[in-house]
Write a structure and sequence with these properties.
This protein is α/β, with parallel strands linked by helices and about 400 residues long. Helices cover about 20% and strands about 30% of the residues. The chain has 2 domains: about 5-260, Spore Coat Polysaccharide Biosynthesis Protein SpsA, Chain A; about 285-385, UDP N-Acetylglucosamine Acyltransferase, domain 1, CATH 2.160.10.10. The strands form 7 sheets. Strands 5-4-1-6-11-8-12 form a 7-stranded mixed beta sheet. A 6-stranded parallel beta sheet has the order 14-17-20-23-26-29, with no helix packed on it. It starts with 5 loop residues before the first strand and ends in a 6-residue tail after the last strand. Belongs to the bacterial/plant glucose-1-phosphate adenylyltransferase family. This is Glucose-1-phosphate adenylyltransferase.
């Protein structure tokens, strides 16, 4: 018996504004994570280990940054003559062309392609979370349920619940209530932005919703589509029991890195049975110079450490000079902290330079320094600062 034909659509086109300076010049899915990875590596690695070879990636903002990382899909075994990786940029020339205005709108714009592909199940996944999940297992459960949509769910903290689509689940896993980013969530059970749809029924429903929306257009999946499917009793929940972390804000991004420097991290990213794959460059081994102190940290290849590093993540090419101190921070590729400087509870983007004896951050909110910024020698950036300061526009 042939396996069901499964298509995965990775939504990688969001602006990522909640990640502030980190997405000024890169797509959100291209944001580095845990030293050597990018956020999009997680859904693509899930596709690999799920045995799914038909993967489309919808791109929009800063497309070059994500396209360079994807290359031809080789790290995820998607460089194939038939099927494999397909990127979907915005286009013109049909009534579906133009800039998408949300996740549901993005799905509507690709409807003709999806119908032509004719999958048995359509997996739609975001690319701003860290997790491992067998998409084929979810798709198989969906195909046997009679549902129009299966929502993968996870439990979140009560004070964080208003950020998500919140569901109420009844007997047999049927979703009895759905609210998109509610002010007063009924539960703490949230969709984790992985959905399995019955393609024909969902796209037909989406067409009707688009006609009703008129010039206002479709927005996100949670705005109209998922509530309608829930109201008709056609939504099911699939609970994800393992680790899942949305890293779409600066505090969440920083907190997730704190979890991965623990002695027992929440996910083994090198697990041979489910390793996270990435398109990495070739880097020499990390160099720890005489007198260097490194504790409770992730240190990537190509780094050079002469100072003190505690509770931090160093991406490839980072340099910490002798006499410099980095504590509880995340340094992205090529960041350079010069002698005598101190960096505390901060995120430094690509190729940031911290001048000699400068002080960045401190106790309190996370400090963020944007790509290629130079903090002058002796300068002080207070805890919670954004440098350079975002434009008011």
């Amino acid at each position: 018996m042939a396996l069901p034909r499964i298509l995965v659509l990775v939504l990688a086109g969001g602006a990522g504004g909640r990640l502030e300076l980190l997405t000024d010049r890169r797509a959100k899915p291209a944001v580095p994570f845990a030293g050597v990875y990018r956020l999009i590596d997680f859904p693509l690695s899930n596709c690999l280990h799920s045995g799914i070879a038909d993967v489309w990636v919808s791109i929009q903002f800063h497309p070059t940054s994500i396209s360079q990382h994807l290359a031809n899909g080789r790290p995820w075994d998607l460089d194939r003559s038939t099927g494999g990786l397909l990127t979907l940029p915005p286009f013109q020339g049909t009534d579906r062309g133009g800039w998408n205005t949300g996740t549901a709108d993005s799905l509507w714009r690709q409807a003709d392609l999806i119908r032509a592909f004719a999958p048995d199940a359509l997996v739609v996944a975001s690319s701003d979370a860290v997790y491992k999940l067998d998409y084929r297992e979810v798709a198989d459960a969906h195909l046997g349920s009679g549902a129009e949509v299966t929502m993968v769910t996870t439990e979140v903290a009560a004070d964080d619940a208003p950020r998500y689509g919140i569901v109420e689940v009844g007997n047999g896993g049927r979703v009895t209530g759905y609210a998109y980013k509610p002010d007063e969530p009924a539960t703490t059970t949230a969709t984790n932005e992985v959905f399995v749809f019955s393609p024909t029924e969902t796209l037909d429903r989406l067409e009707a919703l688009a006609r009703d929306a008129g010039e206002d257009g479709l927005e996100d999946l949670g705005s109209q589509l998922l509530p309608a499917q829930t109201d008709d009793g056609l939504a099911r929940a699939f609970p994800l029991e393992g680790y899942w972390r949305d890293v779409g804000t600066i505090p969440a991004y920083w907190e997730a890195h704190r979890e991965f420097i623990q002695e027992e991290p929440p996910l083994d990213l090198d697990d041979p049975s489910w390793a996270i794959r990435t398109r990495g460059g070739r880097h020499s081994a990390a160099r720890l110079l005489r007198g260097a102190v490194v504790e409770d940290s992730l240190v990537s290849g190509g780094t050079r450490v002469g100072g003190e590093v505690r509770g931090s993540v160093l991406s490839p090419g980072v340099v910490i000079e002798r006499g410099a101190t980095v504590v509880d921070s995340v340094l992205l590729p090529g960041a350079h902290v010069r002698a005598g400087a101190t960096v505390t509870r901060a995120v430094l983007d690509d190729r940031v330079e911290i001048g000699e004896s400068a002080t960045v951050g401190g106790d309190g909110e996370i400090t963020l320094v944007g790509r290629r910024a130079v903090v002058d020698a002796g300068a002080q950036l207070a805890a919670g600062a954004r440098f350079p300061e975002p434009d008011d526009d």
